[in-house]
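Just scan my protein:

——
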Amino acid sequence: MDSNQHPEDSSEKNKLKIYTFLEENPVGVLSTVSSDGKPHAVVIYFTINDIFDITFTNAFDMTFTTKEGTKKVRNLKQNDHVMLIVFDTLTQTTVQITAIAHIITDAAEKEQALRETNRASLTTSHGRIPPIVKLSAGNLMAFKLKPVRIKMAVFKDAISGTYNEIYETVEFGM
């Protein structure tokens, strides 16, 4: 760290780096757990809140859409703790997000989440709609993810080191 750089400056840069990575990579693997403790992981398109507040005070929400008859919805209704993994093969970057999932009930917010999920799919899959839209599993619904912890590692830049030396971690209050 530069001798003129404060630790807070480094932390804010890490937050911005993580935010930018997530905004540019809107596909990840969402993991949930069933009532009997069995893990379940699915690929989702997600969006990150457009309003970036460098302090992340209520502004680092992510949304995704699914259908009400899916296993992930059944799991989330019983246990709202999730992990979302986002990976970029070119830069060997991985982001691990531990979060709490909330059902979006506000009609306007739900509609925006549906539009943004479709946009993420269209821009990353050469014009295709999200697979969840094609699934016969009830009505579409939207969820908001509130991060508790985010860890990012850019392995192409890491020669070697311990977990703490390679990962940049952002902790959130609950």
User: Anything to note?
Assistant: DSSP finds five helices and seven strands in the chain. The CA atoms of residues 150 and 170 lie 5 Å apart. Confidence is low (pLDDT under 50) at residues 1-8.
